[in-house]
Amino acid sequence: MSEHKINIEWSRQGVFSHEGFDRNHQIQFHSDVSLTAAGANNPSAADPEQMLAAALSSCHMQTFLVLASKKRLQVESYQDNAVAILSQREDGKFYVSKITLNPKVEFSGDKIPDRETLENMHHKSHDHCFVANSISCEMEVNIQK
Question: The pTM is what?
Fold first, then answer.
């Protein structure tokens, strides 16, 4: 077992009321690593839905890279444009209903995996990704060329 700690800090900026307030806050990951976060769809900061998609995408990518290295494949780059979909349940509560990963992987060298091998690697990456194993929303992987 391992612990992964963060620190969140928020303080009032301007008016705080039921009609609205500034949602910007800082998330400290390590002494020199922090991120400005805010509520959904704030163009100046990351929102929780984006961070959930980022956590899943990052975990999936790292698992994929481990699998590729064990297969002695030469990965040149990995890019993903992940999307989290926020939906509303019948009881009115909101939740992330689906996260779609759109990974594009560039390989070099003598061993370039075919489509079936890539699909199997992404399937195995999903099965072994601890973030994927921790969330209940639907997840889809659309392999990009």
Answer: 0.92
| DSSP classification of residue 61 | H
DSSP bridge pairs for 95: 87
40, pLDDT greater than 90: no
- Enumerate the β-bridge partners of residue 98: 85, 138
For the chain, list the domains and their CATH numbers.
1-46 (no CATH), 48-141 (3.30.300.20)
Whole-number pLDDT of residue 43: 87
Q: Give the type of residue at 20.
A: G
Q: 11 has which bridge partners? A: none
Residues in a beta bridge with 84: 99
Residue 80 near residue 57, CB atoms below 8 Å = yes
